[in-house]
Amino acid sequence: xxxxxxxxxxxxxxxxxxxxxxxxxxxxxxxxxxxxIPVEVLIPLDMIATPQVRYDKxxxxxxxxxxxxxPEEFTYSSLARAMEIGVHALRSLPETPLSAVGIxxxxxxxxETEALQDVTKKTGFDNLLSESDFVISGRSIARTLDWRxxxxxxxxxxxxxxxxxxxxxxxxxSSDSKQQIDWLSANVQDIEEQVTxxxxxCIQLQPEA
Length: 209
What we know:
- Helices cover 29% and strands 34% of the residues.
- It is of the alpha+beta class.
- It has one domain.
């Protein structure tokens, strides 16, 4: 059964100055727009969550502890643009204290997907839990792989009655903005190649139709 892309993002963890990253600041520093070009600002109804700035099918959320760039279309060309916006942020605010940068590529698949059932199948530990009258309502498995000085975490989760979720988190832990810029400036084809290798060769899933 085929997998479906969902919830892709670029995340830069650090102590971001929200007084600078106002909607106008995001438009100028990240999207590199002139003052007379408008952006869409999405305000949450509860006024607690952080406002979102939307332009050209990209959404930016500036929190105190992280900057999130989300493409609305889950394609590698859109992901490349989100990575570019992240690079603009790092270059525009080099004084920001940083700790990590990540690229999240998430997928979902039906519970009937045999390849994922094989990955998360019952173990002896599951049997011991069941024999002790525990009801297992979810399973997850994760592997961490070295990649380009950082790592790829592959996490597969199964919740009772819900589709499988597969997260590929590409991450570099570094406080050096230049190192983060170099890492985030990778050719998006490198990301696509790793995703393709992991999903379709290692896990043996079927591509989207």
